């Protein structure tokens, strides 16, 4: 999941980096880390180069998936549309990092004003949040397809319900970003994207972060991991029954098992990093 970071502090975030370091030492600054974060307040240049190197292949793969979807009608299924949404969200986040955040860190200079940097960071919020909902819907699709294939065809055989799911995912993401734009003004607290630490920093009430980010992320991740484990057990059971099946069927089953194992381990890893 392409999750983003949030930082909660007890005072205004408009101060300089030394102020934030003092807050960190005094225990008054709290930070949620992201897989793309490479430092709390200071990004190491070699690490930034490494993140950029990793970001390029990821961006290429996601854009290639979008290209395949646009050229192959066989991929235009409900599951395919959800996967497309996630690829687009991933591409946007990676593109933002490669084209703006990484160069900013390499040259050690913020491009544009601080308000522009904040806007760039905030615009990545909607796709990041949408991935949380999309990954949950994808897991439900896999669960029904594995245990109730007939019901799955009846329920998700049409794209209308999938379009509703996609709209919900992106509207939810936009809603969370809007909340974090409006709430600080109402509660007289600060909220800004800090390019130096690649993070969203705020001194708003902790309940904001808990309600909008922490609970949804952990709930979704736990649900998806549980579903993946159930499907993995199902595939292992089916694989044991393929003793007299053809070699092609056995290989297909083994591929499915490997995919589910990778998805479960990958999601567990990203959940631990949140």
How would you sum up this structure, described in words?
By secondary structure, this protein is mainly alpha-helical. The protein has a single domain (6-273), classed as Rhopdopsin 7-helix transmembrane proteins. Helices cover 72% and strands 5% of the residues. The protein is built from 9 helices and 4 strands. The chain has helices spanning 17-26, 45-71, 78-107, 114-123, 125-147, 149-156, 159-186, 206-240, 247-273, and strands spanning 6-9, 29-31, 191-194, 199-202. A 4-stranded mixed beta sheet has the order 2-1-4-3. β3 and β4 (199-202) form a beta hairpin. The longest helix is centred in the C-terminal third of the chain and has 35 residues, at 206-240. The chain is globular and about 60 Å long. The relative contact order is 0.14. The model is unreliable at 1-47 and 268-274 (pLDDT under 50). Residues 54-263 form the 7TM GPCR serpentine receptor class x (Srx) domain. Keywords: Membrane, Transmembrane, Transmembrane helix. This is 7TM GPCR serpentine receptor class x (Srx) domain-containing protein.
């Amino acid at each position: 999941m392409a999750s983003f970071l949030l930082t909660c502090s007890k005072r205004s975030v408009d101060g300089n980096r030394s102020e934030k370091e003092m807050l960190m030492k005094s225990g008054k600054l709290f930070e949620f880390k992201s897989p793309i974060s490479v430092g709390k307040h200071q990004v190491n240049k070699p690490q930034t180069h490494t993140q950029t190197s990793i970001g390029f292949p990821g961006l290429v793969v996601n854009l290639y998936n979008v290209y395949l979807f646009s050229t192959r009608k066989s991929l235009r299924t409900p599951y395919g549309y959800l996967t497309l949404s996630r690829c687009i969200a991933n591409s946007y986040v990676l593109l933002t990092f490669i084209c703006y955040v990484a160069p900013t860190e390499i040259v050690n200079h913020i491009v544009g004003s601080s308000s522009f940097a904040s806007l760039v960071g905030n615009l990545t919020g909607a796709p990041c949040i949408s991935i949380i909902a999309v990954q949950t819907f994808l897991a439900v699709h896999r669960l029904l397809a594995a245990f109730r294939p007939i019901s799955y065809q009846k329920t998700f055989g049409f794209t209308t319900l999938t379009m509703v799911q996609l709209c919900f995912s992106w509207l939810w993401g936009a809603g969370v970003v809007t909340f974090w734009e409006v709430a600080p003004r109402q509660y007289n607290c600060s909220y800004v994207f800090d390019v130096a630490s690649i993070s969203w920093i705020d001194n708003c009430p902790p309940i904001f972060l808990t309600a909008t980010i922490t609970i949804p992320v952990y709930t979704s991740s736990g649900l998806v991991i549980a579903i993946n484990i159930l499907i993995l057990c199902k595939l292992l059971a089916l694989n044991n029954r393929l003793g007299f099946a053809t070699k092609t069927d056995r290989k297909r089953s083994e591929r499915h098992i490997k995919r589910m194992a990778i998805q479960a381990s990958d999601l567990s890893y990203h959940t631990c990093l949140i």
